[in-house]
Each structure stands twice: as C-alpha cells, then as structure tokens.
Amino acid sequence: AAPATVPPQGTRRRVLVTLHRRESWMHGEGGDGDGCPLDGILAGLAAAVRERPDVSVLFPVHPNPAVRRRVEQHLDGLASVRLVEPMAYLPFVRAMAAADVIVSDSGGVQEEAPSLGVPVLVIRERTERPEGLAPGMNTLVGRDADAVRRALADALDRPRRRPARLPVPNPFGDGRAAERIRDALLGWWRDGALRVAPFVAPPAPHPAPRARRLGGESR
Fold first, then answer.
1. Could you give the CA distance from residue 205 to residue 41 in angstroms, rounded to a whole number?
2. Would the CA dihedral through 143, 144, 147, 152 be positive or negative?
3. What is the average pLDDT value for the chain, to the nearest integer?
4. What is the value of pTM for the model shown?
5. What CA–CA distance (Å, rounded) separates 194 from 172?
6. Does residue 216 or residue 59 have the better pLDDT?
7. What would the DSSP string read from start to end of 34-86?
8. Vertex 126 angle, CA 108 and 91, to 5°
C-alpha cells in the first residue's frame, strides 16, 4: 500500500473507505473462508466505482494480511482507488473533511463525520449510534454487495454538503460540552450546588427524513 496522504483537491467526488471491525472480515472462526462479509462489501464498492469514472477513493487498509489480500483482490488495479497504509488521526480527520462520502464500519467515524458535514454509509447490520441515523446524516447499509453499490451510487448522486448547509443540527451536540462541564463544576465549587443546563439542539430547518435501512426497513 502507498504512504498515507490525502489526494489533491479536484473535481472528482471523493470517497473515504475504512473497514476495521472484526465482524466485517471474520468468517466463522478462521476469517478466511468463502462467504466472508468483506467479499460482499468490496464487491459492492468495486461495482460502484466502475460505474462512476468521476470518483476518487482513498482506502487506508487494515494491516491484517487476510484483509489486505481480499482488498487487493477486489480493488487493486482500479485506477480511481488508492490503497494506503493506516493513517494517523490528524491526517485521517483531514481526509474525512475532504471527502464527499465516507464508507465505514467505524463507530467513531459515525460520531465525527456529522461535525464535518460528510455523510457516512454505515457498513454494519446495526449501530449503537442511532442518533446519527435519525437526521438522515448517516445511512445503515449492511454488508450485502448490491446494497453497498446502490447506497454509494445514491450518495454520490446527491449534491455536495458541508457544515454551513447541513439539513439538520448535529445530533451529537455543538462542540461546547467542555465549557458546560467547566461552568457546572465552577458553580458547584463556588455555591455548593451543581447546576447543569441541559443541551437543547436548535430546531431543524425542515422535517428530518426518517432513519431507515436501505430497502425501506425503519430503524
């Protein structure tokens, strides 16, 4: 894999891919047999990329040899896909901010991407972060090849979106939790009473779409 860098800005639609959860690439006990979920995920990703010559994909690949072998089998040779080494956190945040859509099974990415105005296709059967699904920012896709292909194609057909134009408030807050904690603790220290003002998100500019799983199942 190439060194971990963010490609230069251009007219191509940027896709950032991360797949690191064991259930995405483990099959039975060994993780290397037929029917590994990763095969379906990668097949769907490859199909979507072949349909879109205007796409540039950055994929920091998990160091596990079995994972690398499968990733290279499905994606190596596609000119619009860059397979790179795992990225340090700050370069990865820059890559997230530069992306038009993120394809990931990461819980952390589901929380961070809304602050950057970047939608996430969640490559899992369920998520412990349903708040990100309710505003329609993230989409629970699953691991089926055709579901991955259709979800990515649909995401790439939407207009580019950035924080100033988010359709709904960030479901994970406004980034000022530390200030509120500080004020609450200072108040307790001065007055002996812990007063915490609950966070209330600003109203959405229009009704948020219902969270749904691809295929129409409500979540």
1. 34
2. positive
3. 80
4. 0.75
5. 23
6. 59
7. TT-HHHHHHHHHHHHHHH-TTEEEEEEPPS-HHHHHHHHHHHTT-TTEEEEPP
8. 20
Q: Which is nearest to 70 in space by CA: 106, 31, 102, 101?
A: 31
Over residues 98-147, the pLDDT tens digits come to 999 999 999 999 999 988 889 999 999 999 888 888 666 899 999 999 99
C-alpha 194/C-alpha 182 separation (Å) is 11
116, 102 contact by CB (below 8 A): no
Give all domains of the chain, ordered by start, each with its CATH number. 13-166 (3.40.50.2000), 173-197 (no CATH)
pLDDT value at 206 more than 80:
no
Give mean pLDDT, residues 150-158: 92
In sequence order, the 6+-apart residues with CB closer than 8 A to the CB of 96 are: 16, 102, 109, 112, 113, 116, 118
What is the Cα–Cα distance from 82 to 16, expressed in whole angstroms? 10
Phi/psi at 23 (5° precision): -70, -15
SS (H, E, C) 84-151: ECCCCHHHHHHHHHHCCEEEECCHHHHHHHHHHCCCEEECCCCCCCHHHCCCCCEEECCCCHHHHHHH
E strand or H helix that includes residue 14: strand 13-18
Retrieve residue 162's tokens: 């950035």
| Strand pairing category for 120-122 and 101-104 | parallel
CA distance 127 to 106: 10
